[in-house]
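Hi Y.,

Following your request, here is the sequence exactly as I used it, all 470 residues.
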Amino acid sequence: MIGSAEEYIERLRSYKREIYVLGKKIDNFADHPNIRPTVNAFAYTYELAKTRDEFAPYSDLVGEKVNRLNYMNKTPEDLMARFDYQRELSKRMATCNYRCTGCDAINAIYPATKALDEREGTDYHQRFLKLLKEIQKNDYACTAALTDVKGDRSKRPAEQRDMFLHVVEKREDGIVVSGAKVHQSGAFAADVNFVLPTQTFKQGEEEFAIVFAVMPEDEGVKYIIQNTGVQAKQREDGEFEPGNVKYGDRTTCMVVFDNVFIPWERVFIFEDLKAARDVLNYFAASHRCAGAACKAGFIDSMVGAASLMLKANGLENVAVLQQKIAEMVAVSEGAYGISIGAAAKGYKANDSWQPNQYMANAGKIIGVEGFTKSLVNLIDIAGGIIGTSPSEFDMKGELGEKVSKYMSASEKFTPEQRMKIVKFIEFWATSSHLIGAVHGGGSPAASLITLRFIMDIEDKEKAVKNCLDL
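Below is the corresponding structure, written out as tokens. Let me know if you'd prefer a different format.
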């Protein structure tokens, strides 16, 4: 079914979670000022799903329409619709939608467990389908946790077990896991959090090769909220200086698993090296490709902010600045085009449709370069005011009249409106989104390593040899 924002928020308020903000455990987390913007972003994914038919596809699993982000893609058109949804969410919210990793996990676990069951005669796929059915029927918001803390990168996981999520006890009714995941976008505000391996493992490291799902009732899960970007600007009275007021900065957390029990029904891969590698490969390509569409939406938001800033400054007719906006539009369409191409040129894998791996990894590289270029253009267009401006608190303070006077520019915008645009662009320039663009879904280096292993250089050399009669 397609749920509502109100149902999601009320459901969230019923959960008892161990969440820490600025070192203190908090209550009523769904309404906490550091968390509420993330909740608003999750909530908007429910509203946007109702605006277009392709955002609410029919699922044979439950016999009704479901949220696009909870759907298992079966055709190129499914993937294209998913990337359209990603771009639209990023453009409208100017921040993370948080559910993309959950969608990537669903579309990675499905084919990986199907292949595992066919190879080993297990029932992991049926376990997963049972949970997926529950997710689709209730329109649960899902995220995924992959990145382990890793500790000393020169050591293998077996040499530093506590730095990787691992099985500490195997019981008749389930497993007990311990460790931590970092960089987890919005996990604290999700209904379901899939936990996937952070890397491929070798023989003897089977205890790390696990995939499972965390639900709200699981005890021993602790969420430690980041303290960067907007969160670091919180005043003593709890108020924030606005930038992206409604949806906030991308908010992540460290998730600590303190001997957490997971019942077998929610364990989908257990100590199987090949299946763990398969799910990681599917996830990486899916997330990097979705990231290209996501960056296109972020750049769309930057374009809108840049155009408004030009108008607020009275510079909308300056050709060289308009050309910079045109460059941003070109980059946005290019990143989006890569994701659509990856969908069109994808492949079938155990009843799922997966993006083309070459294009998915290329989308990561091009997307990061395009995002960086667009951000520099936005800063150039906005001017130094985004780094030196007084705050909106000053505009309301004792010298408010003077601040308003000297923050005025074009008569088409009030000083307050110009200040909001300035702070929104400051948000883009100083938030964690650039870091997220570089490292989300793996660093550019990870995509280059992947491309290095799958690229067919011999075919390209052969073409040149033919040209040169070598």
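The chain has a mean pLDDT of 93.

Thanks again,
Q.
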